[in-house]
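In the laboratory, one determines a bound structure by crystallizing the protein with its ligand and collecting diffraction data. In a computational setting the workflow is compressed into a single prediction: the sequence and the ligand go in, and a structural description comes out. We illustrate the idea with magnesium ion.
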Amino acid sequence: KSKETGRNAMSFFDPAMQTVVLERAALEAGLRKAIDGGQLVLHYQAQVVDGGRVTGAEVLVRWQHPQRGTVPPSEFIPLAEETGLILSLGNWVMETACTQLARWAQRADTSHLSIAVNVSAQQFREADFVATVCGIIERTGANPKRLKLELTESLLVDNVEDIIQKMYALKAKGVEFSLDDFGIGYSSLSYLKRLPLNQLKIDQSFVRDVLIDPNDASIAKTIVALAQSLGLGVIAEGVETDAQRDFLADAGCHAYQGYFFCRPLPLDGFEQFVQAFDPILDME
Ligand code: C2E
Ligand code: MG
Ligand code: MG
Ligand code: MG
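The predicted complex, in structure-token form:
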């Protein structure tokens, strides 16, 4: 009988396809449980300046899956965005980061550290985003001046006025903004002067081949020059070698993040990294 049914009907019963659908549903249910049930963790990746001083960390979320182990964000952030779970996930990340900022503020060796939090466009577009962040800051006692939100150009596709207004409202509290993955998006450069940004973050795709691809080298230099002329800070992500670091420093970029300095680490590993690094520099 099944041979008489058409191609489409056949493919509906395609076991491979059914597996995909079931896996997705299971993944979504699993992610919901992970957010509510404490399976998410933050890893901290050092942001450093010339000389090696650690100025803070970017927090990067991971899913400690009971069976699959550590699942990277590339495997669940897109799903979280499609399902709306990004809102509760994002709130958890913000709350956890701000709680950590408040703890660091109590200790002399960590009170200078800032935290950069990735905020997805969908989160930022929520009408109550500003109120939510302000509520978390108040509840946790975090210093908003130590909180940096990493936004991407994908935010700028619609209702830029709304985005700008929210950014100013948070800036008034002291919150800072970095434009993540800069250079790979499609935003108009004219937005750059209208957004109350503090920093551009050079996308790692330009850093990777900066020594071998003259186009990437030009782009990296141009982003640094653009940041300087707009009065913005600039940080490079994905720095893996000292030669890349040296090229960027020569171009005028003096803040870095990447495996060359430190991988994203669980909290205790990051704190050990800070302690191992800073005392040496204090003696300079
Ligand atoms: P991103 O914000 O651009 O983060 C940088 C990514 O590059 C991280 O990947 C980091 O582990 C990786 N990385 C850092 N240094 C190096 C390096 O030297 N070489 C290479 N090859 N890679 C490096 P990760 O942790 O897998 O995160 C991927 C993306 O997932 C992030 O890109 C960000 O867009 C998203 N993401 C992570 N955490 C969150 C979160 O809490 N909320 C949201 N909305 N997105 C997040
Ligand atoms: Mg980021
Ligand atoms: Mg990035
Ligand atoms: Mg990136």
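The radius of gyration is 21 Å. Keep in mind that any predicted model is a hypothesis to be tested, not a measurement.
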